[in-house]
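notes to self, project folder thing:

trying the whole complex as one job this time. last attempt i did each chain seperately and stitching them together was a nightmare. four parts in total, labels are on each line so i dont mix them up again. if this works i'll redo the older ones the same way
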Amino acid sequence: MTDKATRRSLRSPLRRPRVRHNVTAAIGADICGGRFPPGTVLPRESDLCETYGVSRTVIRESLKVLETKGLVRGRPRVGTIVCDRAEWNVLDAQILEWMGPDVLSAELLGSILEARRTVEPAAAFLAASRATAQEIADLERACDDMGDAEGDLEAFTAADARFHETLLKASHNKVFHQLSSIIHAALSYALHASNRAAVKRDEALDVHRELVDALRLRDGARAETCSRQILDLAARDLSRLMGDAGGLKTNL
Amino acid sequence: MTDKATRRSLRSPLRRPRVRHNVTAAIGADICGGRFPPGTVLPRESDLCETYGVSRTVIRESLKVLETKGLVRGRPRVGTIVCDRAEWNVLDAQILEWMGPDVLSAELLGSILEARRTVEPAAAFLAASRATAQEIADLERACDDMGDAEGDLEAFTAADARFHETLLKASHNKVFHQLSSIIHAALSYALHASNRAAVKRDEALDVHRELVDALRLRDGARAETCSRQILDLAARDLSRLMGDAGGLKTNL
DNA sequence: TAGCGATTAATTGTATGATGATTTAGCGTG
DNA sequence: CACGCTAAATCATCATACAATTAATCGCTA
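result (full assembly):
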């Protein structure tokens, strides 16, 4: 008893034994990674129990979670079927994470970039008239962190993500705010793929700072323009990274 | 025991297998409807079992579903806490449905309208170069149904929703396509609230048809303009319905 | 009495097995 | 060959028990 608890608390890197969470992630990653292509029915629940070494309770709850994400669809007697990719909730942060940089299709990346070029300038415009002082301070801090990151590409990307997430939040539009997840995905892809391609971050950082200035002056038009510039740079980097395969439409 | 089962099978307007689905909807509606305000911990699972007359398995699976939607957050020993509204996934169709026209806050409606005015014109522009013949035909059919609906406001709204959903789909942008849910919410609210306010539907229908024409001619700019006009009309109706309370920003 | 550490108790998390419900598949019959 | 029926496989739900986690309580010490 006591020693058991003691042992657990000692080996505590897994101090949160969230079994279900891990199983959900495992199955989700298996699906998003292509090991269970759309249309296939995945093994029956009792088999999944053995595969992942957990009880049926956990398997079921995990499948229900995946079902709400649009990944699978369960029907009595026939099993749980992997839905078509079109039905996946690609706005879900976890799904994007499970897909990972290797699986993110060029089509989806293009969609994300297009969406960002549509939404972020509008959000920047709105933020100019609605951002709180705290939010502007957060944005500035993100810029500082981006500058301090210098060599650390990961830290730079994290700060960059925080910047864009805060910007969407500062628009005080609940719908825009929900789109933060796709920015994480886009940036994590860029981070993964651009390890050796030293993109010009200084230039981007300057525009970020200019955007914050515009917000401080409540200059919506200028903030909007800055946002467009940032995304132009992102688009350039992305198309370079992908070798302009996939025929990315850079119009709009 | 046995009588319980008998009672269940007898009272079976719910003879469809979806017990869990109903429980999920019930709890979700209770939360979205304000009966469990954010911050409160809802009853413990065993109590919920009695309340809804189902087993703990069903309760748990329902709670896990609600958790993935960002409505609640469960922690061991303490219970499941209702998350702040900011964490709710307001892009989820079911949540919007559970909130219902009466609970949809002016803020959220404003956010949705803003988002539509940002996204839909862009989607229309893209659709002009990407829509398939089938999608254009679907759009035209939706227009016809809107015309045929004449008096039936519900049918008109359904066709209208189909139009805008198809338009987003025709943009062939996966992110935009996922935003269909918010359109349903916006239109269902308008449907609910505008029972007596006879909005001018003919005018809107003409613009819808013009948009389809623009798509057929691959005229992106014109399609974009039409989309803006449609949303201007929608914004006018909405602000009239809400008596311009909430201070809807109609800029942008 | 105030502060603090260990114990306890209550609730969620997981496991197990059984039963009912539903759909697919196979079979038999006209 | 078509059609309906039986039957088996699998999910859906239930019931129960145990483990893990943490808030709350009790008791000890200064």
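what i see at first glance: The longest strand of chain A covers residues 72-75.
need to look closer tmrw
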